[in-house]
Give the backbone structure.
Amino acid sequence: MISICPGLRNTEYRQPRTISKYVSSILVIENYSQLDNFVLPIFANGSPTLVFNTAKATSSNKTINNLTLYGQTAKPKELFIKNDFTRIAYFLYPNALNSFSNIGAKKLTDGSTELVFLKQAKAHNLQE
């Protein structure tokens, strides 16, 4: 376990074999000692990422809900979280986006989309 911030617990997992074709790694970050607004740096890693948050956040004055798909991050940014949280990030291989959505990696570069707005997510009540 590597601590990237004091009071923060993070663990990186190897992906299960069943998803290894799509997921390069999984990172879980937990913060249950939130005293003030927490700023989580998002580093450029060039990997699309599927993220689940237990708390809503903001980034670039945009609300980030609980289930978000980020494109390849080329420019670093910050995520602001006001409450205790757990964040689970699935770092995907670039070709994985086409496997479960019709959103191309280039369209999401340095951006994100809330998965609750995708047709497939609505059909399965994914936000719940």
Remarks:
- The chain is about 10% helix and 40% strand.
- The chain has a mean pLDDT of 76.
- The first strand starts at residue 9 and ends at 13.
